[in-house]
User: Fold this.
Amino acid sequence: MSEANTVRWGVIGLGFFGEVHADALADMPGIELAALCTRRPQRLAELADRHNVPGRYTDYHDLLADPAVDVVSITTHVDDHREIAVDALSSGKHVFLEKPMAPTVDDCDRIIEAAGQSRGLFMVGHICRFDPRVALAKRAIEEGRVGRIISMHARRNLPKAIGRQVLDKISALMGDGIHDADLMLWFSQAKPVSIYAQEVHPGQCKYPDGGWAMARLDNDAVAVIESVWHLPETTPYTIDAQMEVIGTEGALYINCGEAGLEVHDAEGIRLPDTMYWPRVFGEHFGVLRSELRYFANCISEGRRPDRITPEESRAAVELMVAATESSQTGTVVYL
Assistant:
């Protein structure tokens, strides 16, 4: 790292979320946005000029060879995750890989193997674990306040407009259902035994617009995941995300859809993001910033991230891959 423990960061992939990463990193103390990479020169110039980024690359291999970069965010299409992550880990960079870790369990295993052999630290970005509402729910569960978990149900639904932008790249279940798959496994500390899923495909994109998956866990709990990217254009929600956790002694209700602000104007009612990566007074703050800060601190202090492990991220992928198989075959899939 550079002097004064500044963490020098590069971002590979400058789609929507790559831009969010770059914007958040650019104004974080102790972090230097040192390099950006995309295959689109015009897009590269746009974001690099915005933040005066010196390292500008259209080939990620060149970025990985840059000694002025300590850590990379990989915010590319999920199908590219394995190759780029393995190369980045092999180069010795610290790697922050956006979820899902990879499209297949075999790809996850290959990444985990590379992480085990790398001198760099590795973490998959499961942002919901850094949401204070979720973290407080996890603490309540650990304190025994709900008893033994017997039932969990989560919904994470998005407007059609977002679906049209994303559904040629990933399904709703894999793209967003994986958040709740991870949280349910984290909350329960259980493993899935079986899963049955159904998907719907009313849109024109490559992947299904929505799906429901029901899993039986090895602690005998039932976990139901709902992810539908087909809310009407007029919906006020940026995201309608809620989770119910019922145990033998109590229950939890987490509402991440309504974040305390409604804007009523000529266009209707909107519920903007106030928690994950809002920009206020010219700076980004929120859950993404906390997640990136956590990984930067791990790098500065030389400690392995344990807020989420690669094996936990793999487990969430395994569950959603099984859900997809169940939906496609119409059968219960056993794990």
